[in-house]
Design brief:
9 helices, transmembrane helix, membrane, mainly alpha, elongated, 279 residues, transmembrane, Gustatory receptor, two-stranded antiparallel sheet, 2 strands
Length: 279
């Protein structure tokens, strides 16, 4: 974890400390604002009114405790939303910043490869590339499971919000805004993780291709450079979801397609069950 922390702190060495602070603020404030908007609108939605009515009309809850149950539910709703938004936002933004830093280093390294003049300089470039690889290895080691949990959780939340927005009866614009805000929150989190991971993986692939071309530029040091690359750069390093699925741009389309398929399936099952009830 120390390697990743050092990576993000090195933004300042490139004169980008101010930009990184602005980036952190923007990426954090957007999901948190959407999550809190959902929580506030939920208390004015018809769903909350229905749940409140269920508690009040319940015969299993004593009258003296009904108000207490409603207050506990409200507090639990606020706390859960705050914790969820803070945890997911902080993890996804941290993931995003490290990926931005990694992408920046890869771009700088590719420029150096294009301007390399001698074999000694190419050796230093390879050494720098190996250090950059360690950043991705550390990020993958410490964050692959967290990224998996974030993607699965936000996909589930996005499915629920989308299904509620489309199929659950609504009685005003507040209901639409409530589910829309919740859906945008989950979409923003999953978008940050997948877009960041796919960009970093793409940058890693292009940088590796550039590095692997170095031996061909210097025939005198061809064998020496080739041995170094084969020894240290043979294995492909990439960001994954719990080492199960490599993060790439196609994963975004796959995720959206999966949500649509499950939505159609659930809607079809609901229509069939309602038809059977009428019969």
């Amino acid at each position: 974890m120390k390697k990743i922390s050092n990576a993000t702190s090195m933004f300042s060495s490139y004169g980008k400390r101010r930009n990184s602070v602005i980036t952190v603020f923007v990426y954090c404030s957007l999901p948190i604002t959407l999550a809190m908007s959902y929580a506030i609108l939920f208390f004015y939605s018809s769903t909350y009114t229905f749940l409140k009515k269920v508690v009040i009309d319940s015969q299993f809850i004593p009258k003296k405790l009904k108000g207490f149950f409603i207050v506990i539910y409200d507090i639990n709703m606020i706390i859960d939303t705050a914790i969820l938004s803070l945890v997911f936002s902080s993890l996804s933004v941290y993931y995003r910043l490290v990926c931005i830093y990694f992408d920046t280093l890869c771009c700088r390294l590719k420029v150096q490869v294009q301007n390399v003049k001698d074999s000694g300089e190419s050796g230093r470039i390879i050494y720098a590339y190996l250090k950059i690889r360690k950043i991705m290895e550390s990020l993958e080691y410490f964050m692959c499971f967290s990224a998996f949990i974030i993607v699965v959780s936000t996909m589930t939340g996005l499915f629920y919000m989308s299904y509620s927005l489309i199929f659950i009866p609504k009685y005003g614009c507040i209901d639409y805004l409530c589910y829309l805000g919740g859906g945008l929150f989950h979409f923003s989190i999953i978008g940050i993780v997948l877009v960041s991971g796919s960009s970093a993986n793409r940058a890693a692939e292009l940088t590796k291709e550039a590095i692997m071309s170095l031996p061909g530029m210097f025939q005198k040091s061809y064998n020496e450079l080739k041995v170094i690359l084969r020894k240290n750069c043979k294995q492909q390093v990439c960001l994954t979801l719990w080492k199960i699925y490599k993060i790439d741009r196609s994963l975004i389309i796959t995720a959206m397609g999966t949500l649509m398929n499950y939505g159609i399936l659930v809607a079809t099952i609901g229509s069939v069950s309602r038809g059977n009830d009428k019969i």
